[in-house]
Amino acid sequence: MNLSFKLKSVVSSALIASAFVAASGVQAAAVVGSQGLAINGTVTPVSPGLANASGPGVLTLTLLTVTGSQFGDFVSGTTIGTNLGTVTFDLANISSFMFSNAVFGNFQASSVFELPTTNPNSREYYIQGTFSAGSFSAKNDPTSATLDLTLNQAQGPGSAISSSATFFTPALQVPLPGTLALLGLGTLALGGLARKKVS
101 φ, ψ to 5°? Predict the structure, then answer.
C-alpha cells in the first residue's frame, strides 16, 4: 500500500465524519491525522521467522516510540521520542495489542488484517482498534484507528527483524479483494516492463 492511498483513506474517512457532524450538529472531538512510530528496541523472537506459513508467532516490540513524521492533529503536540512502551503482537490474540501513554493516548486493538505481499520475508498488517488522545489534544473522544505495521526479515529466519509503523486516525479502510487483485496485476505488469527493458 502506498502512502498516497493511505492518506486518501484518512481524508475520505475524515470527510465522512465531518459530514455526519455537520448533519447531526454534534461538535467533533476526536483527533484526525497520522503519526509515525518506530520500534527503537528489538522485535523478538526472530524464529520461526516471518516466512513461516502459519505466521511469525507471538512477537514482542520493544520501545515503540513517536517519530517526527506527523500529519493533522498530531502535529500540534505529540512529542518526538515519546516512549509508548513495549507491546505484544499476537495474531491469535490481537486484543492483547495495546499501549497507553498519558500524553499520547490509549490504543486498544480489536482486529487485524494482513496485506498480501510477494516477499516471504516481509509482512504488513493493519491493526484496527480504538484510540483516545492523551493530554496533547483537547479532542479526546474515542475514535477508530489503524496501526499500519510492516515487518522485514531480509536474511530469513533467525536474522534481525526491522520494522516501520504509522498510526492513523480515523482507521484506514481495509482494501477490498478486487482492489488488491488490481494492485497485484499492476505490480506484475510493472515487473514485466522492468524485465523487458533490462533484456
Answer: -145, 130
* pTM, 2 dp: 0.77
Bridge-based pairing of strands 87-89 and 162-169 is unpaired
Distance, CA of 66 to CA of 164 (rounded, Å): 11
Give the domain ranges of the chain.
3-191
Judge whether 103 and 80 are in contact, CB under 8 Å.
no
Distance of CA 189 to the CA centre of its chain: 27
Question: Residue 50: which of 86, 91, 85, 84 has the closest Cα?
Answer: 91
Q: How far apart are CA 68 and CA 193, in angstroms?
A: 36
pLDDT for 87-107, tens place per residue?
Answer: 999 999 999 999 999 999 999
| DSSP 8-class letter at 138 | S
User: 51: number of CA atoms within 13 Å, CB side?
Assistant: 11
Exposed/middle/buried for residue 127 (C-beta within 10 Å: 0-12, 13-18, 19+): buried
Are the CB atoms for 184 and 1 separated by under 8 Å? Answer: no
Instruction: Report CA dihedral (11, 13, 17, 22) to the nearest 10 degrees.
Output: 50
